[in-house]
Design a protein that fits this description.
Number of strands: 12
Oligomer: single chain
Number of helices: 8
Radius of gyration: 21 Å
Mean pLDDT: 88
Distance between the termini: 42 Å
Largest sheet: 5 strands, mixed
Length: 281
């Protein structure tokens, strides 16, 4: 619910601003009607008291990773909400915790993305470097961009203490009862995730381009071609030469050691904390 509040609040904030601040006739970044059409179920859930909410099925997939803590205090936090209309996702890194959530999927991505062996290993075994957290964000966001999620949902509100079997609740929504003390809210959803017509090459470009953009590197035309055709999909989570997951030993944002362990060739200054130099490990 906390992640949903951050996500919905961020998207609601976008309904106040123009796409072009210098043009008073410019369209809004996000129309309020579009926000409600896609995310009204989140608004309804946030109006309810969390302890009184019963979920028939999880309306979201949530991933919780361990994160390494940089010495620099200003590098201990990162926040991401996609600007793409069909990507209902948030990721937050705070101190030693990194979380990502995809909304409106009935747990689809928990098994689809969470079931990838590398992601399973990262969830259970790795402590992620900030750049690896960025890669996970870009990876999940690009997958969502290649899919659409839709389906019916409904709420049932009733006085607390009313006996109800959530598996057999009739399909109906009640707006006349305001969630509050003594009121139980049952939420049921049947969101279905299906692939859209976005080309695989475009999805790869979004994933890799987002990662490199956050790392401050502009891809060359040849690199873009290789990514689009699937010949090159760089990762900091796995050393593709040895097929060994990459565990960082230093968590400073621009420490060359992480890139060296991932078999990347980079030109970075030596790390002020661990002294690692650029080059292949």
């Amino acid at each position: 619910m906390w992640l949903a509040k951050l996500y919905y609040g961020t998207k609601f904030y976008e309904t106040r601003f123009l796409q072009d601040a210098a043009d008073s006739t410019s369209a809004l970044i996000l129309e309020h009607s579009d926000l409600l059409e896609r995310n009204d179920y989140l608004r309804r859930l946030l109006l309810a008291i969390p302890k009184n909410v019963q979920l028939v099925a999880p309306p979201a997939s949530v991933f919780v990773f361990r994160a390494g803590v940089p010495d620099r205090k200003d590098a201990r936090f990162d926040f991401f909400v996609s600007g793409l209309a069909n990507v209902d996702m948030i990721s937050v890194r705070m101190g030693d915790v990194f979380v990502a959530a995809a909304f409106g999927d009935n747990g689809h991505w928990a098994s689809r993305f969470g079931g990838v062996r590398l992601v399973e290993y990262a969830l259970s075994e790795l402590t992620l470097h900030p750049a690896q957290c960025t890669e996970v964000t870009a990876w999940l966001a690009s997958l969502l961009a290649g899919h659409e999620a839709s389906g019916p949902w409904d709420f049932l509100t009733a006085a607390d203490g009313t006996s109800m079997d959530v598996a057999t609740v009739p399909s109906r929504s009640c707006d006349s009862v305001i969630p509050g003390p003594g009121v139980k809210t049952i939420f049921r959803s049947n969101f279905v995730v299906t692939a859209n017509d976005a080309p695989d090459g475009s999805i790869r470009l979004l994933r890799v381009g987002t990662l490199f953009d956050r790392l401050g590197h502009k891809l060359t035309r040849e690199e873009l071609r290789q990514v689009e055709e699937g010949d090159w999909v760089p990762t900091l989570l796995l050393n593709v030469r040895t097929d060994i997951p990459v565990q960082a030993s230093c968590f400073e944002p621009w420490c060359p050691d992480l890139f060296r362990r991932a078999d990347w060739i980079v030109d970075l200054s030596s790390c002020p904390k661990c002294g690692a130099e650029s080059g292949l490990g």
